[in-house]
Every structure is written in structure tokens, then in C-alpha cells.
User: Fold this.
Amino acid sequence: MTETLIDLAVRSLAGLVDLEVERTKYRGHARELAAAARGELIIVLGGDGSINEVVNGVMGRGGAGPGGAGPGGAGPGGAGGDGSDAGRPLIAVIPGGGANVLARALGLPVDAAAAIRRVREVIAAGRYRTIGLGLAADRYFTFSAGLGFDAEVVREVDRLRAEGRRESASLFLRTIMRQLYRGTDRRRPALTLERDGQPPVADLFMTIITNRSPWTYLRSRPLLPVPHPDFNSGLDLLALRRLQLTTIVSAVGQMLYVRNRPVRGRDLLSVQGAESLTLRSVRPIALQVDGEYLGETEAVNFQFVPHALRIVA
Assistant:
């Protein structure tokens, strides 16, 4: 993110909202700023990780009203909502990261300057929508979470970025191949899925849980485990019973090009519209939410929280 984009956001929004600009200084800082903010609107100029921190900061305030800090660049304002849905945050997103999954899923342009103009128009019109969130243990997520191979790839990409590598689709693809053949355990499935009223499903290698939204994007095309994303239809799960390149290619191909049914296959497990589910692992396993690696765990309860977040969109 450049100072030019921050200045552009400030100039564009000045006069429409009362801005107080805050810049994040370390991982977790956006969550702290959002938790302490007291304005009516939070505008986040950043990537999915910054957005996730802001969401968790606001949602963790125990029913307090919409916040007022702007981690990552542009800051909070004193306008933008109609005051309804008391206790729910009102957040605006300006893409400033690599994947920008949430921003694109909300229909915003990937170009930050164009997105700033769009956000200004929507704030001026007083429009917003309410979306549901996923909850992985005590961490909210806006579009996806993952256990196993998916999260291992995120962990490795984070490590490479810390070494100075630039985030890109090609970096993810190379990391996927390297992790598949040199890093992950492809012989011993660790995960078991548990749901109320259903028998457990064991011997799963990896799971993707989406908040009825794209899992991610491959360049400009969304990867959809189920068609027709709307953010308010519960959690969807896609799990792999075999961790082989052919299985991954089949799943990704369907997510890219099939738009009339959920992903399916002999080695795939699909669940749609779940209110809650639990995943247990026989050994510590990697976990990610919204593209942020959270470490290893042995059990996670996932819940859908309907109509949890107000988004300027």
C-alpha cells in the first residue's frame, strides 16, 4: 500500500465523512484499533488480513455500536449508515492487498482508485448490505477458513513473503506443487467431520469452509465450491478424501467453471448450508481463516452467524 493511495482516499472522502486516519504498525494492530474505535463507520484500506482483523475487533466489543478506526490507511467517518441494526458494525472496504477476495466478492473493482470512487458513491447514497460471518472457534471469518493442506500452503506463502517474495498467483501455484510433493502428509488422513444428527465422516485430508462465498480467486475468476454466493446461506464445506494432484485439479476445475451445481466427485465431500460443524484431527494440523495462518490445532468448531456485519456496498 502506498502513501499515494492513502492520500487519494483521504482527499476523496474528505467533506463526506469526518476522517481520523490510523496506520497499522504490526500484526494484530488493526484488531486493536477497531476494538477501541468509537465512530459510526470504519473504512479499511488493506488486504483480506487487515479486513479480518477489523471485523474481529469490532465483533469482539460485546454488542457495542459501529466503530471508528481505519487500519491500513483511510480512517473512520461520522456518516454512512442509517443508525439501524444497533450493535452491528458498519464497515467499508477498499482493496489494498494481494487477493482482495472479500472486496471482489462484494463487487468492488480491484483497482484501489476505482474502488475509492465506488465506496464514496455508496457512502453518499447511504447504502449498505448485511452479511453473515463464519466463526472458527473464537475467530470470525468473512469468506473462508481451511484445515490441512490449504492452510499449509498459506503458511508457506506467508514465510516466503516474509523473505521478500511478492504475493502472486504464480507464487501460490508453485507453493501448492512444492507442498504437495515435499511438505504435506499424503498418506495419513487426519481429519474427522462431526455434525449434529449425522454420523462422523473420518479420513479427510483437508477441508475448506466457506461463508457461501468464493474460496479465493485465480486471477479474475472466482473459485466457487457452491454456485450463487450470497453470504447469508450458512457455511459450505468441501473436503478431500485423497490428496492427489488429480483430485485437486478436478476440484479446482469445477470451482472455476461449473456454475450450476456444487463441486462433487468420488474423492470429494460436499456439505451446504450448515449452521455448525466440528472438525477434529488426530494430530496438530494447520488452520487458516481469510487467508491468515493461525497456527496448528486439533479441533475446531465452526458456526454460522447470520446477518452479523453491515457492509457499505
In short: Helices lie at 3-13, 29-36, 48-59, 101-105, 112-125, 149-162, 169-183, 245-257. The chain is about 30% helix and 30% strand. Residues 169-183 form the longest helix (15 residues).
